[in-house]
Design brief:
By secondary structure, the protein is of the alpha+beta class. It has 8 helices and 20 strands. Helix 1 packs parallel to helix 2, helix 5 packs across helix 6 and helix 5 packs across helix 8.
Length: 403
C-alpha cells in the first residue's frame, strides 16, 4: 500500500486546495488517471496518479488547503485488500482553513484566471469546482445529473453541458468581475516577485540568432493547400518542433537544476507559453514534443492553449516541462528575451516572423525571417553550447519536410 500525496505543481508551490474528488474508495485506477482537482495560483489543476491499484482511504476533505507532500489517499496495490475503513466517505462539507493559504509567486509563469466565486447555496450535492464552472457558464445545476460519488455533480458533468448551454448575455457586469480584477492585480505582483527571484538566483546568459524562413514558409503554404481549414498548420508549430528537436540534440539545455546540480532529461517536454486573457502567462508542457509529427504537435498546441485559458490543466503539464518556448506570433515585435522557468535551465523566445534584409551570396535580399533568443543557465551551459543549440534549430527549419 502506498500514499498518494499533494504534488508540487511548480517550483514555488507550497500548498493547494482540494476542491474535487473524481474517485471513491474501492475504485480501480491506473497510471495517468485524473483522480482529483486542486486549486492553486494557476487555477484548477487536474491531479493525475502515477501508479496502478485501487483507491483505499481518502485522507483529505474537500475544501482543505494542504501543503505539498501532504497525504491525499491510500493506494492499494495488486493482491492487497482495500481496508475496511476505506469505505467511510470523506466529508464533502467545505471546511475553510484556519489560516490563509500559503501563496507564493510562481517563477516565470502566472496563474490561470480564478473560477467565479462559488455561491454556497447553489447546487447541493455538487463539488465546489462544478459550482464554480456552472456559475461561469450560466448553467442551472438543478438540470444536471451527477456522476460523482453518491450522485454528486462533478466538474465533468458541467463540462458535458458546456457545448450545448447557451452563452449568458448579462445586462450588467459579471458577478465575479471585481474578484477577477483583484486577482489580475495580485497576479501582476506575483509575476514581479517571481521575475526578480528568477533573475537573482539563476545566472542567465543570452544568445540571439536570426533564421531565414523562406524554405519553411514555402513548404508550409504547399502543405496547407492540401489540408482542410481546421487541420492547417501554423508557423508556430514548425518553430516549436525545431526547438524540441534541437533540445534533444543539445541536452545541456533540456532538464532540471536542483540541489544535486543539473539532471538532463531523457524526454523533451516542451513548455508552451500561453497568454491569458486579462494579462499574464502560463507555460504548460507538451509531453514528448520532439516525437510528435507536425500535425500532432499542432493539435497538442491548440488543445493546451484552449485548456489553459479555461483553467483546465493537468498536474503533469505543470510540473514536467524540461524547456520552454515562447513565441510572439504574427503580430509581435522583432525580438524578445525571456526569463527561465525553474527548475528548467533554458527558455527560447521567438519574435514575429517578418520580412527582413538578409545577405545571400553577397547580395542583400528581402526574405521572411525570425529572430530567436535563447536564455540559458550559465551553471549548466555556456555561449558556445547556446550557439550550437540555435544553429541546430536553424538547420532543422531549412528542411521543414523532415520536421
Amino acid at each position: 500500500m502506498s500514499t498518494f500525496t499533494m504534488p508540487s505543481l511548480g517550483a514555488d508551490m507550497e500548498a493547494g486546495k482540494l476542491v474535487e474528488w473524481l474517485v471513491k474508495p474501492g475504485d480501480a485506477v491506473k497510471r495517468g488517471d485524473i483522480v482529483a482537482v486542486v486549486e492553486t495560483q494557476k487555477g484548477a489543476i487536474e491531479i493525475e496518479i502515477f501508479e496502478d491499484g485501487k483507491v483505499g482511504k481518502l485522507m483529505a476533505d474537500l475544501g482543505q488547503t494542504l501543503p505539498v507532500g501532504a497525504p491525499l489517499a491510500e493506494i492499494v496495490g495488486a493482491g492487497e485488500e482495500v481496508p475496511a475503513q476505506a469505505a467511510e466517505p470523506v466529508s464533502e462539507t467545505v471546511s475553510e482553513p484556519t489560516s490563509a493559504p500559503v501563496v507564493t509567486p510562481e517563477l516565470a509563469t502566472a496563474p490561470a484566471p480564478p473560477p467565479t466565486t462559488i455561491a454556497p447555496a447553489a447546487g447541493p450535492g455538487s463539488s465546489p469546482a462544478a459550482r464554480a464552472r456552472a456559475a461561469e457558464l450560466g448553467i442551472d445545476l438543478s438540470s444536471v445529473s451527477g456522476s460523482g460519488p453518491g450522485g454528486a455533480i462533478v466538474l465533468a458533468d458541467v463540462e458535458g453541458l458546456a457545448k450545448s448551454a447557451p452563452a449568458p448575455t448579462p445586462s450588467a457586469p459579471a458577478a465575479g468581475s471585481d474578484a477577477r480584477t483583484n486577482f489580475i492585480a495580485e497576479m501582476r505582483k506575483a509575476i514581479a516577485a517571481a521575475m526578480a527571484r528568477s533573475k537573482r538566483e539563476i545566472p542567465h546568459y543570452y544568445v540571439t540568432h536570426t533564421v531565414d524562413l523562406t524554405a519553411a514558409s514555402s513548404w508550409l503554404s504547399a502543405a496547407n493547400a492540401e489540408r482542410p481549414l481546421e487541420e492547417r498548420l501554423l508557423m508556430g508549430a514548425l518553430l516549436a518542433k525545431a526547438v524540441a528537436l534541437a533540445a534533444r540534440e543539445v541536452h545541456q539545455v533540456n532538464g532540471h537544476y536542483g540541489e544535486g546540480g543539473f539532471t538532463p532529461s531523457g524526454e523533451v517536454n516542451l513548455g508552451l507559453a500561453v497568454a491569458l486573457r486579462g494579462g499574464g502567462l502560463i507555460a504548460p508542457a507538451i509531453m514528448n514534443a520532439d516525437a510528435l509529427d507536425l500535425a500532432g504537435l499542432m493539435a497538442a498546441m491548440r488543445d493546451v492553449t484552449t485548456r489553459t485559458r479555461a483553467g483546465r490543466l493537468r498536474s503533469s503539464e505543470m510540473s514536467m516541462g524540461t524547456i520552454t518556448f515562447s513565441g510572439l506570433g504574427e503580430n509581435g515585435v522583432e525580438t524578445m528575451a525571456g526569463i527561465i522557468v525553474p527548475p528548467q535551465v533554458a527558455l527560447v523566445t521567438a519574435g514575429a516572423p517578418q520580412p527582413m534584409a538578409l545577405v545571400r551570396d553577397g547580395a542583400v535580399v528581402a526574405a521572411t525571417a525570425v529572430t530567436f533568443t535563447l536564455a540559458a543557465d550559465h551553471r549548466v551551459s555556456d555561449g558556445r553550447l547556446g550557439a550550437k543549440f540555435l544553429l541546430a534549430m536553424d538547420r532543422f527549419l531549412q528542411t521543414p519536410e523532415a520536421l
